[in-house]
Amino acid sequence: MRSRLLRLLLISAITLLAIRLRPRGAGAAAEDDEEPAAEQEGSSRIGFTKLLKVSRVFQLVLLITLFSNLAFDAMAEVALPVFARDDLLSGAGGFGLMLSAFGAGALVGGLLTDALFRLPRRGLVALGLGVVQGVALALVPVAGGLAGACVLLAASGLTIGVLNAFYMTHLQQHVPPQMLGRTMGALTMATFGAQPVSVLAAGLVLGVTGPGVIFVTAGLLIVVGYLLAVPSSEFRNL
């Protein structure tokens, strides 16, 4: 174990030493860029604030990301293991199988994203897939057993795989380069910031209602997030 750690540290050190902050021969051109770089940093702050205020697409993607992660974390980390144990009586094996079905669906969805980009009304289709995702999660408790739950979770995972790649690609293509880091940071915050809130709320609800209500609530939260985007013509016509 110690020798493996030392090898990793050595590789990291060599990698850091190989990084050059400024290419050789860039001299004068790099110096000319130093002053504008500071100005660009200041303009990126202003630009991000403006982007958040005026870009309806960014606002809606941020909202959908927040709603989806609030829903998914509560479902996957709280409701699903209890559902596998108490309702399906399948224990850890059933829980693992359902997670695997979801993961397999997400993998296939990611591979199918290119097909979505080829569709003429792909923005509207993407919204429809988001609604399908929420409905599939809401129906898991009444799917008729482990096999039905796996099918619905795989369908939900497939839509997530498609939509994650679809919306992230659009943002990275249309957000100005100097704002891209801040934009992705905001989305990452929405993703990971939702986790403790979602899990805490689901834990409090679970003791009173059982896992079924969490599945339904998670599904409705996702559906609402995508339906809020329907009135935006810009979002529908991505």
Net shape: globular
For CATH, the homologous superfamily is named as MFS general substrate transporter like domains
Helix content: over 70%
CATH class value = Mainly Alpha
Mean pLDDT: 80
The gyration radius over C-alpha positions equals 22 Å
Q: Could you tell me the strand content as a percent range?
A: under 5%
Unreliable segments of 5+ consecutive residues: 22-46
Structural class: mainly alpha
The CATH architecture can be named as Up-down Bundle
Q: What is the H/E order?
A: HHHHHHHHH
How far from one another are the termini?
50 Å
Continuous helix count: 9
Q: How many structural units, i.e. domains?
A: 1
CATH topology: Growth Hormone, Chain: A
What summary fits the major beta sheet? none
Instruction: Find the count of extended strands (DSSP E, 2+ residues).
Output: 0
Label this structure with key terms.
mainly alpha; 238 residues
Describe this structure in words.
With 238 residues, the chain is mostly helical. The chain has one domain: MFS general substrate transporter like domains (Growth Hormone, Chain: A, Up-down Bundle), CATH 1.20.1250.20. Helices cover 86% and strands 0% of the residues. It is built from nine helices and no strands. Helix 3 (56-87) runs antiparallel to helix 4 (91-117), helix 3 runs parallel beside helix 7 (177-209) and helix 3 runs antiparallel to helix 8 (211-227). The longest helix is centred in the last third of the chain and has 33 residues, at 177-209. It is globular and about 50 Å long. The chain starts with a helix and ends with a helix.
